[in-house]
Specification:
- There is one protein chain.
- The protein is an all-alpha fold and 236 residues long.
- It has a single domain, classed as Phosphate transport system protein phou homolog 2, domain 2 (Methane Monooxygenase Hydroxylase, Chain G, domain 1).
- Helix 1 runs antiparallel to helix 2, helix 2 runs antiparallel to helix 3 and helix 4 packs antiparallel against helix 5.
- The radius of gyration is 20 Å and the shape is elongated.
- The termini are far apart.
- The C terminus is likely disordered.
């Protein structure tokens, strides 16, 4: 009986490890897709952008694999408490990472359009913004694998960095368009790129919230948003 129980526990641990591995692969692919999309944008390389778009199919496949694993574990193992929280969180995280992959694909699509126009000076902010969101994703997935609540909580504060980049780029591009009306089209595409990166930051910190809940059973305090662009036209 003890041997059977030990085997069952080992099988369950193997299933959980496999699920974590799929989530980690999704996170790694997100990092690569974001970095490659922004590199293609800045290098004005339409072919490199197309590679990013085509690679999005792999993200969809990994999400489906994570879903199938999570459902199988729940059906066969009937996990409780902490284990169930982790599996449900992994299921949600897979969906969020797939969405992040979609944002990276959208950036790559716009890179092909931006490549057809002259460079826009404020775009130099974009690579640093992208590096920040990639670091947040990497640290968030590390916290998930390690079940590190403290690390997840610290990540929540870093979303403000992304918002600050976005606010700065928004204002710079707005000023640039007013001074150079013939750059309105590429600048508008860059605004969407910046918004995609800002949304990636939001999604990554949402994952950190799930990680914190998984590890503690409690929800973190609501974090403030510092995206001020909605009030940029407000005369008050």
């Amino acid at each position: 009986m003890a041997e059977t129980t030990a085997h069952t526990v080992k099988s369950f641990d193997d299933d959980i490890a496999q699920l974590r591995a799929v989530i980690s692969r999704m996170g790694g692919l997100c990092e690569t897709q974001i970095a490659d999309a922004v590199d293609a944008l800045m290098a004005r390389n339409s072919e490199a952008a197309r590679v990013v778009v085509d690679a999005d199919k792999r993200m969809d496949e990994l999400e489906a694999e994570a879903e199938a694993l999570a459902v199988r574990i729940i059906a066969l193992r009937a996990p409780l408490a902490d284990d169930l929280r982790e599996i449900v969180a992994a299921l949600k995280i897979a969906g969020v990472l797939e969405r992040i992959g979609d944002y990276a694909k959208n950036i790559a699509k716009r890179a092909a359009v931006v490549a057809q126009s002259q460079p826009v000076a404020p775009a130099v902010i974009i690579p640093e913004m992208a590096r920040t969101v990639v670091e947040i994703i990497r640290d968030t997935l590390d916290a998930f694998v390690d079940r590190d609540a403290e690390k997840a909580l610290a990540i929540l504060q870093r979303d403000q960095q992304v918002d600050e980049f976005y606010n700065s780029l928004f204002r710079s591009l707005l000023t640039f368009m007013m001074e150079n009306p013939h750059y309105i089209t590429p600048s508008t595409h860059l605004l969407f790129v910046a918004k995609n990166l800002e949304r990636i930051g939001d999604h990554a910190t949402s994952v950190a919230e799930m990680v914190y809940f998984t590890a503690t059973g409690e929800r973190p305090a609501e974090r403030p948003k510092t995206d001020m662009t909605s009030s940029v036209y407000n005369p008050q």
